[in-house]
Design goal:
This protein has 22 helices and 6 strands. With 606 residues, it is mainly α. The strands form 3 sheets. A two-stranded antiparallel sheet has the order 1-2. Strands 3-4 form a two-stranded antiparallel ribbon. Strands 5-6 form a two-stranded antiparallel ribbon. Helix 17 packs across helix 18.
């Protein structure tokens, strides 16, 4: 049977040569000369029994052995080695390892144990026993000696080449040491420079501290002056307060005298006979009585003026253009004569309702006056838009007693925000919805008890007297019982001119009264006069005191309206406060949808 080395195909390129670097011999790998080395190898070789030499014949044992022992590059004294030794001892008796191989392994293990592996050249010394074992193979196996010798020489040449490279890198090591010294010198120089800069900075720091001390002294001096002046200011303020109290006392006395004078004039002057107006009002006495029902003398004067003005308005064929001045509303800027379209009150009210319907159906991006004029251009065309704008403006300015017209005029002229109108409509719609939900039979009828319950649930902050006023406006009277039925839908109807029923009118009147009371409470909490200036932070605190349940969004909306700045630009830091006259802030809040959201004391909500 051929040995594994004989059966394996080894092919070598004939053109490949193993060249040894110039000046490098095999003697460079060993400290002794070649002759000395061969002498030692021969001496060591004699230590091996002669009958173990195979004379060029390789044993076939590794090809059929159940396990193959390969001597690892490990310390002979390791546990792994012991395990391998035990594994060798456990080889089956029928498959014995060649004694020559076993003897070589024992020899290699002993040689490795004798080496001092603690030196720097430990790895190079470790190769010496392996070289000797390889030499034994070369000498004993004559047949493979040329091949094994060429292999050994190739590795020896490569090791010599690597050693030469290592020696060539020695100058670089010196350069690195030199560079390290240079870097250290530079670092020391930089530290010295930094030390000098630190010294200079410390001097500058001392100068600045002296300057700060000087400024503090000046501040203390000025503080003693901002205190002397404050004391003077307090004296002047106290005198001012006394004068204001005297002024308020005088005003109260004046108002009292004025009231007494009006009472005297009223009792001394005969009341007018309003029935005479029926002769001059269109529709006669019957229509006048309908117009005058439930109105006081001041309101009757307004109704009479409207009737007279309506007649004069119908006689006008043209309106004079107001020009293009900045004070003129954009929808009225025109030079020349403008035709009077002469619509009826019914037509004007219908047109205004159409404006609101379209306004509420889209996003409110543009200002209301601009939207109003764009609506007219879309409805009547650009040529007639200005004529309709003048005509509607003159009508809504005249008929102040008409709810639709008066509210539209206030919003168009910037005297009231749109939110007021929208909120009023939403409140009425919500109230009607509550009544419809309570009408389980869908008969359009509710009892007075149900009516009272719905009002109290919808308006939890209303006073008892206001609830009673709403019930009276809805048809309740002291002789009514809780079981009495009434047509609740009739409370929300309007006539052809847009006039609401007394119930809806009473809702609007109470809204105005409650807003006035709310703003008056705010003014009292601020404790300021209208001509004084109020800061945004102070107004915010006052609003939160009188209305603790006010949410942040509504609070910011009120502040934005009062100071006429966008909500996004409201400062939250008191150091960036905004100031305006209290009178201006109150007027702006009067225009907006301002109302109480909860009781003043949070515990009162229970």
């Amino acid at each position: 049977m051929a040995s594994p080395l004989q059966s394996r195909d080894y092919s070598f390129s004939k053109s490949r040569k193993y060249l040894r670097p110039s000046g490098v011999t095999t003697d460079d790998f060993f400290p002794e000369s070649k002759s000395t080395q061969k002498f030692k190898l021969s001496q060591k070789r004699k230590m091996l029994p002669v009958h173990f030499s195979m004379s060029g014949h390789l044993s076939p044992w590794p090809t059929y052995a159940s396990g193959q022992t390969i001597l690892q590059n490990r310390k002979p004294c390791s546990d792994d080695c012991r395990k391998r030794t035990s594994s060798w001892q456990q080889q089956p008796i029928g498959i014995a390892k060649p004694q020559y191989l076993e003897h070589l392994e024992n020899y290699l293990r002993k040689e490795l144990l004798l080496l001092d592996l603690g030196t720097d050249s430990a790895q190079e010394l470790r190769l010496q026993p392996y070289r000797e074992i390889f030499e034994f193979f070369i000498e004993d196996f004559k047949t493979y000696k040329p091949l094994l010798s060429s292999i050994k020489n190739a590795y020896e040449l490569m090791l010599a080449h690597q050693k030469e490279k290592i020696q060539a890198l020695e100058p670089l090591k010196g350069k690195l040491i030199t560079m390290n010294e240079d870097c250290n010198e530079r670092i020391l120089a930089m530290r010295a420079e930094e030390k000098y800069e630190i010294s200079m900075l410390k001097k500058e720091k001392m100068n600045l501290l002296k300057l700060i001390d000087k400024k503090n002294e000046e501040k203390i001096s000025l503080q003693s002056e901002l205190d002397s002046l404050r004391a003077d200011y307090e004296e002047v303020r106290k005198e001012h307060d006394l004068l204001l109290q005297l002024h308020m006392t005088t005003l109260k006395e004046r108002d009292q005298f004025s009231s007494e004078l009006q009472d005297i004039q009223r009792t001394s002057t005969p009341r007018p006979d309003w029935t005479k107006c029926g002769d001059v009002v269109a529709g006669g006495l019957d229509r006048w009585q309908m117009l005058a029902e439930g109105k006081n003398s001041d309101q009757l004067v307004d109704v009479l003026l409207e009737e007279i003005g309506e007649g004069l308005l119908r006689e006008k064929d043209f309106f004079p253009g107001l020009g293009y001045g900045e004070a003129i509303p954009p929808f009225l800027r025109f030079d020349g004569r403008v035709k009077n379209k002469k619509p009826s009150k019914k037509d004007v009210v219908k047109l205004l309702k159409d404006v609101w319907k379209e306004r509420l159906a889209e996003e409110q991006k543009e200002k209301f006056p601009d939207f109003f004029f764009n609506f007219l251009e879309h409805r009547f065309g650009p040529s007639d838009a200005i004529a309709w704008a003048y005509t509607i403006f003159e009508n809504i300015r005249l008929f102040r007693s008409n709810e639709v017209m008066s509210q539209f005029y206030a919003i168009l002229m910037g005297k009231m925000t749109e939110s007021v109108y929208i909120n009023q409509k939403e409140t009425v719609a919500q109230l009607l919805k509550e009544m419809i939900n309570a009408d389980s039979q869908n008969e359009g009828l509710l009892t007075m008890e149900q009516f009272s319950t719905i009002l109290k649930r919808t308006f939890p902050l209303k006073k008892e007297e206001h609830i009673r006023e709403l019930m009276e406006a809805g048809g309740w009277h002291p002789n009514s019982t809780n079981a009495d039925l009434f047509d609740y839908r009739s409370l929300f109807t309007e006539d052809e001119e847009g006039q609401s029923e007394p119930f809806v009118q009473k809702l609007w009147e109470q809204y105005v009264i409650e807003k006035d009371e709310y703003l008056q409470e705010l003014k009292q909490e601020l404790g300021m006069e209208l001509y004084e200036e109020v800061t945004l932070s102070k107004l915010r605190r006052a609003l939160m005191i009188i209305d603790p349940t006010l949410d942040k969004q509504t609070l910011n909306t009120h502040l934005s309206q009062a100071f006429q700045i966008p909500v996004s630009e409201l400062p939250e830091n008191e150091n960036e406060d905004i100031v305006t006259r209290l009178q201006t802030a109150m007027e702006q809040l009067q225009m907006a949808d301002v109302k109480r959201t909860g009781p003043r004391e949070p515990e009162a909500a229970s």
